């Protein structure tokens, strides 16, 4: 039922060993799955022991590093492979972490943000994992998972956590231009990154609740001309075990949910689908 997508928030660490969290056991660390979209990168299978879960039952978590990409600059195919695997495994709760550039001047490097909406700048049509569903993207992140992420982040000592905001997903791998960032400011984006899309869409498509937490690693171009970027890797190294604990503790405390995530997916009747395909 549970999955964790790792990003640059834990990139500089050794997840899950450096989280130093009792009740966490690595069962497998080199699981590879064959999907219609190609072979996945190695996944980990983690056990959360019942003494740390909200329902006092053991939980199994599928974990993948750096969004399932096969290389830092090679996202193609990775998300499709990972979410197909999640779908086949019956995953219903997904948490993700990463980093991004601050567009909102209130956000500084080291702050955390839990997005509530997104802007897709990739202009690349996602692949069809299943073809019998109509997916709405109203309230695209789960309110229950967001709340857990926020509460666990405060426990780790983060004092500046923004529990709402708009994530603009760019194509990369380059940083955006200052003109592009001004455009995104006018569109009310708070953070810019590379990974939220298509993850946020695929999660809803397979019927899973989804939420993410992102550390501000830099100012977007044109926001702060004094920032040079030398400290970005020190930030990654410092935050890795903290972000890892936030992820695992959130997955351990998920209980009954009152979110409306499932209401925004409509399964198409087979007769209607047949008519479309003619």
Structure in a nutshell:
This protein has 278 residues and is α/β, with parallel strands linked by helices. It has helices spanning 78-89, 143-155, 178-186, 196-205, 232-253, 270-277, and strands spanning 2-5, 24-31, 34-35, 38-39, 43-48, 59-64, 93-102, 112-113, 117-120, 133-135, 161-162, 166-169, 191-193, 209-219, 265-267.
Description:
This protein is an alpha/beta fold and 278 residues long. The protein has a single domain (2-277), classed as Nucleoside phosphorylase domain (Rossmann fold, 3-Layer(aba) Sandwich). It contains six helices and 15 strands. The strands form three sheets. Strands 1, 2, 5, 6, 7, 8, 9, 11, 12, 13 and 14 form an eleven-stranded mixed beta sheet that branches. Strands 3-4 form a two-stranded antiparallel ribbon. α2 (143-155) crosses α5. The longest helix is centred in the C-terminal third of the chain and has 22 residues, at 232-253.
Integer average pLDDT:
92
Distance between the termini: 36 Å
What is the top-level CATH class?
A: Alpha Beta
Largest sheet: 11 strands, mixed
CATH topology term: Rossmann fold
Topology:
Layout: E1 2-5, E2 24-31, E3 34-35, E4 38-39, E5 43-48, E6 59-64, H1 78-89, E7 93-102, E8 112-113, E9 117-120, E10 133-135, H2 143-155, E11 161-162, E12 166-169, H3 178-186, E13 191-193, H4 196-205, E14 209-219, H5 232-253, E15 265-267, H6 270-277
Parallel strand pairs: 1-6, 1-7, 7-14, 8-11, 9-12, 12-13
Antiparallel strand pairs: 2-5, 3-4, 5-6, 7-13, 8-14, 10-15
């Amino acid at each position: 039922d549970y999955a964790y997508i790792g990003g640059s928030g834990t990139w500089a660490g050794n997840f899950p060993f450096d989280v130093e969290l009792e009740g966490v056991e690595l069962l497998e660390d080199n699981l590879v799955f064959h999907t219609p979209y190609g072979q996945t990168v190695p996944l980990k299978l983690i056990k959360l022991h019942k003494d740390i879960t909200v329902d006092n039952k053991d939980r199994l978590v599928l974990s993948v590093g750096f969004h399932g990409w096969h290389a830092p600059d090679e996202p193609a195919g990775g998300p499709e492979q990972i979410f197909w695997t999640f779908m086949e495994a019956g995953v219903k709760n997904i948490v993700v972490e990463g980093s991004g550039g601050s567009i909102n001047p209130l956000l500084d490097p080291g702050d955390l943000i839990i997005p509530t909406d997104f802007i897709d700048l990739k202009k690349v049509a996602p692949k069809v994992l299943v073809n019998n569903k109509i997916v709405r993207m109203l309230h695209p992140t789960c309110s229950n998972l967001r709340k857990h992420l926020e509460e666990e982040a405060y426990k780790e000592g983060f004092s500046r956590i923004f529990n709402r905001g708009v994530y603009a997903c760019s194509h990369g791998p380059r940083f955006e231009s200052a003109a592009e960032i001004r455009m995104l400011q006018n569109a009310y984006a708070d953070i810019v990154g590379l990974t939220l899309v298509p993850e946020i869409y695929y999660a809803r498509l397979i019927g899973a609740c989804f939420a993410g937490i992102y550390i501000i690693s830099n100012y977007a171009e044109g926001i702060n001309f004094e920032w040079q970027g030398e400290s970005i890797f020190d930030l990654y190294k410092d935050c890795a075990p903290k972000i890892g604990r936030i992820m695992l503790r959130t997955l351990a405390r998920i209980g009954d949910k009152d979110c409306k995530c499932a209401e925004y997916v409509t399964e198409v009747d087979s007769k209607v689908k047949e008519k479309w395909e003619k």
